[in-house]
Amino acid sequence: MAKQKLSNQKVTTIFHKKYLSESPKDTINFASRFAKALKAGDMLALTGNLGSGKTTFVKGIAKGLGVKNYKYVNSPTFVLIKEYKGKLPLYHFDLYRLDIIKDIEDLGSDEYFFGKGISVVEWADKCKALLPKNSIKIEFRIKGETKREIIIK
Ligand SMILES: Nc1ncnc2c1ncn2[C@@H]1O[C@H](COP(=O)(O)OP(=O)(O)OP(=O)(O)O)[C@@H](O)[C@H]1O
Ligand SMILES: [Mg+2]
């Protein structure tokens, strides 16, 4: 009964608002637990400086969704989106090199953002206007050489 109740809750109510990760592995494991509470159609909007742990977090999301080669999740240089097969499809966007919002609209982002998979967007502040209103916003802050603060909003 309690379990069923949990599964109806939105992930942001289950997880603490702030998590201090002590290592890349810690970030991956945290994200993996987080992923298990996600539902089809959830959208994660990631923000934070270079090297703040966004891609590492996506690796963990992939791990939690059962993506076999989750360790190979990376930020592709010339591709804006990569798809992975897990229990739910995972769409990984990295908008770092995106100059104009039209580029991402041309990709057919709506199909992904409002679809049945889990969409994760790095540098989400570059396409704020296109994000669904109920996106889960996650901010990454560098707190030390191996410390990263993960803030879920
Ligand atoms: N606690 C931690 N969590 C995540 N990464 C960490 C942590 N401590 C150190 N690191 C290091 O920080 C870097 C994070 O890189 P990552 O590619 O995940 O960041 P990013 O936010 O995606 O950067 P970019 O904006 O360049 O894509 C890696 O080199 C990783 O080893
Ligand atoms: Mg990255």
In short:
With 153 residues, this protein is an alpha/beta fold.
List keywords for this structure.
single chain; 153 residues; alpha/beta; Rossmann fold; 7-stranded mixed beta sheet; 6 helices; 23% strand; disordered N terminus; binds adenosine-5'-triphosphate; binds magnesium ion
Descriptive overview:
The chain is α/β, with parallel strands linked by helices and 153 residues long. The chain has one domain (15-152): P-loop containing nucleotide triphosphate hydrolases (Rossmann fold, 3-Layer(aba) Sandwich). It is 29% helix and 23% strand. It has 6 helices and 7 strands; from the N terminus they run H-H-E-H-E-H-E-E-H-H-E-E-E. The protein has helices spanning 2-8, 11-14, 24-35, 54-64, 101-106, 109-113, and strands at residues 18-21, 43-47, 81-84, 90-94, 118-122, 136-142, 148-152. The protein has a 7-stranded mixed sheet. A hairpin with a 5-residue loop joins strand 3 and strand 4 (90-94). The chain is globular and about 40 Å long. It starts with a helix and ends with a strand. Mean pLDDT is 87; it is low at 1-6. The structure holds adenosine-5'-triphosphate (ATP) and magnesium ion. Magnesium ion binds next to helix 4. Adenosine-5'-triphosphate is lined by residues 21-24, 26-27, 48, 50-56, 75, 96, 122, 140, 146-148.
